[in-house]
Amino acid sequence: MVNQFKVAWIITRLFQFLGISLCLLVGLMPYVILYLGKKFPIEFTKDPELYKNRLWYISFISHASLGGIPLLLGWPQFIPSFQRNHVQAHRRVGKVYVFTFLITTINGFLISFFATHGWIPAFGFATVALIGFYTTLQGYLHIRNRKILLHQKFMYLSYGCCFSAVNFRLVQSLLSLVSNSEKLNYQISAWAAWVPTLLLVYYFQFFRKKHRKVEFKPN
C-alpha cells in the first residue's frame, strides 16, 4: 500500500525544488543579461522611442537591476529552521529584501504606464506593484511593532507579488503553446501572474486562520 503521507511529502518537495529553481533562474537573469550584453540569446523588443524617455529608462534599469535581489533573497526567509537558528541573518536579509523590493515596486509602478499592448497589462502591472509595496511595508511595520503573525502573513503576500516575475514568464510560455496572439498572451499574463497566487495566499494566511490569535514578540 502506498504511503499517502510520503507521496504528499515527495510532491511538496518537488514543487519546492521547482519554485526555488525558478526563483534562482529568473532572479539571476538580469545580471546574466548585464554580463553577456548583446550575446544574450533572448531579444527584448521595446519601442526605440522609450529609450529616449529618461523617467522610463532610469526606472526600467533600476527595476531590472534591483528586482532580482528580493526574488533571490526572499524564499529562504520562509524556511522555519532558518528563522529559528539564524535570527540575526533572518533580520538582516529581511531588511535588504524590504529595501530592494520597495524600490522595485515603485519603479515597477512607474514603468507600468509604458507597458506594451495597452492599458490592460499596464493596469495589471500597476496594481501588483501597489499591492507589493503595501504588503511589504505592512510586513515591515508589523515586525517593528512585534506582531509576528501579521508580519508573516503580509510577507507571504509580499513575496507572492515578487514571485509574479516568475509566474509571468511561465504563463507567457504556456499561453504561447496554445495561442499565437502575442498581445492577448501578454495581457492575460499581466494578471494571471499574480491574481491566483495572491488569492491562494490570502485564503491560507487570513481567511482560513482568521480566528487565530495574533502573537506578540516578548520584550
UniProtKB/TrEMBL annotation:
Sorted alphabetically, which Pfam families does this protein's record hold? Answer: DUF2306
What name goes with this protein?
DUF2306 domain-containing protein
Source organism per entry reads Algoriphagus confluentis
Q: Which residues form a coiled coil?
A: none
Transmembrane domains' residue ranges: 14-36, 56-75, 96-116, 122-142, 154-172, 184-204
Q: Does the keyword Transmembrane apply?
A: yes
Q: What domain of life does the UniProt record list for this protein's source?
A: Bacteria
User: What does the UniProt keyword field contain?
Assistant: Membrane, Transmembrane, Transmembrane helix
